[in-house]
Each structure stands twice: as structure tokens, then as C-alpha cells.
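task queued by scheduler; priority normal; single chain, no ligands, no partner chains; default sampling; output format set to C-alpha cells
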Amino acid sequence: MLKYFDSTYAGHIDLENVGYAGTPVNDRRYPNEQLATALQKAEKTAQALDRLGYNTFWMAEHHFQPEGTECIPNVLLMALHLTHLTKTIKLGCGFNITPMWHPLRLAEDYAMADILSHGRVVFGVGRGYHTREVETFGSLLIDQAANRELFEEQVDIIFKAFNSESFLHRGKYYTLPPEVPYRGYTLKEITLVPRPARLPVECWQPIQSGSQRALDFMAKHGIQGVIGGGSAEGGIVHKVMVNFQAAHARIGKHIELGERLAIGFQFYIADSIEAGMREAGKYYEENMKMFGELRLVRALTDEQIAAMRDPKLAVNTKLPRIEDAVKAGGFLTGTAADIIEQLKKIEAAYPGLSRVTVTLPLGTPLSVWLEQVERFAKDVMPAFNAGATVGLAAN
């Protein structure tokens, strides 16, 4: 039964001339003052979502993007700041890209955020998809097998640190602690100080390939999964739902279909489905230009990727359109009643599903973003007994 509605903001500034025919992503460059506006947008968005009764506001960790597309480098720091500007909403790390961190620094930082926020900061981990970010930090991404191997060892360490009063780790990438002399003895174990106040730690991870190895790893650590939304291909992926349930069964844990998962959708409320596609189409295209070639839309050809970099090629190349996304179920649009109908079908199909994450495509300006999340909260969420605090919006 759907009862939690979240929203996601990856940190884009207001962009001009969006869409396939607009400015290529690689041609965008903005001054620091403009790039920093992403932080103010996060503040305004968090305050609106808090007032409107959303459960969690998710932000994404990204680095080195003068194109103005994902401009929040430290979501733990941002989330803790936002707890001082909001009242009840949770602030989610969607996601901390673990290969860009030392796992113990990430564990420490989250533990502090958990304690200081009184549990309002939600942990999340991911492997990364920008080579410019991950490889610049001296880690692995182009070598996908090594990236996954490193990620898994790091997450193992993080959960050891969270759940054990003291621990040691001997792996391929880390020896923790090193056996060094310390105060007259040889160091054998180490303690995370402080540890999170709330155990077990609620942790989320994006599901991309949905391989058995990945889903088994999530089940082992009790990590919950996000399918679609934002930068990923959207819509219900039934096979992932079934395989996630099977991964838990392999460790002797029964979960309902959809349980411990969240489904992400892009959305746009309008007077009709056709009007929604017309009004949001350019934002959808800008989103696809940014994310299409970053391993997140697997069906794209080299020709299509090249065309999305060049407006002259785009006009003569068959590219993904918002109509395709709406038909596939990853983009919800139309009237509030249309969107409620689509979500009710999903709710009926997946009895364990309790959480949906809604967002707008990268490139959507702040004014439109705020207007849309308010319409969704007032006109859609009450149909699911969610957004009980929506009435406070008028206060």
C-alpha cells in the first residue's frame, strides 16, 4: 500500500535553451555564482516539500560539473544544514558514491549526521556513473568489475563499523586497522566513534542492472532499493521486483512483492496527457541529453548519443521522446486523476510497495518545480492517505 511519497533533486541550476535543439551539455559553462544557486534551490525545495507533507527529500552527490547539471558535492553536509531549515521531512543521501570516499570517513560522517539530526538524515550508497568524478578521486569506474568489487568491500566495512563495538577487516583493498604500535600495544581492532544512534541503519541503493550478485549483496546487508526515477530509466521493472524478492528468500527472509523497494517516476501535472507531454517535453529531452550516454539508458545507440551532443544531428535522428517514456510508464503525466489512476494500478500489482519517489526532469526551472510538487501534494497524495499535512500549505 502506497503511503510514503518522496521527491528527488540532483542539483541542477536553472538552465536556458533546453531540449535536443538547445545548447549541447558540453557547451554549457557557468560562473561560480550561478553554480552555487543549486544550493539555494535545494533549500527552497526542501522547505516546500516539508510544508507539503512529503516524507523524504533525496539529493545526489556529484562533483566537477561546470555545466550546471548536478552541483551538490556533499549531500551529508547539505542534509544536515537542511534539518535546521525544515521541521519534519527526512533528508536522504541519494546517493553517497562510496568509491569516492574512504569507507570509515563516510561511516563517521553519517554517524554524526544521524545523531545531530535526531534520525532525519537517511543513508544511501551507490557505485557512481561519472568517470570524471570517480576516476578523478583516484578510484575505479571504467573497470566495472573492479568498481563493483571495491564498492562491495567498502560497504562491508561501513556496516561492520556501524554494527560492531570494535572490528577488524582484512580485504583486497583495505587492511583495517593496520597492525601498528599504539600506546604500548599493537593495534588489532578499531572502533567507530561515534556510531549511529539508530541501528540497524536504514540504507538505500539504486538498482541499475539488477544482477543476482547485486541483489544478493543488498539482501545480505538489509539495503533497500530504488528503481528508476531521476537519471535512471523509469517505470516498473517487474523482473527486478521478482528477483529482489527471490534474493531475500535465498537468505530465508520472506518479503512481499515490492517490499523494501521504492519506485521513481518523473512527472508533470497538466490539463491532459497531451498537454503534459507538450509542456514537459523539452525538459525530458534535456534530462536525456545529460544522462543518456552515462550507462543509464542502455538501449541508446552510438548514433543517438552523438546526435544528442549536436543539435544539427538531433533534428534528423530518431531519439527518445517523452511520448515513449509515458507509454513505457516511467513518466507520469496528465491530470491529477490520470496520475492517481496510474499509481493505483501499480499499488494493486505490488502489494508490498509503500514508497514512491517523484521528480521532474533535469532542466525544469525552480518556479515550475515548486508549482508541480505542490499540485502533486494537494491533488494526488491525498488519494493514498498520504500528505496529511498538505493543508498546512495555506498557512
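post-processing summary
- The chain has one domain: 4-94+202-394.
- The domain at 4-94+202-394 is CATH 3.20.20.30 (TIM Barrel).
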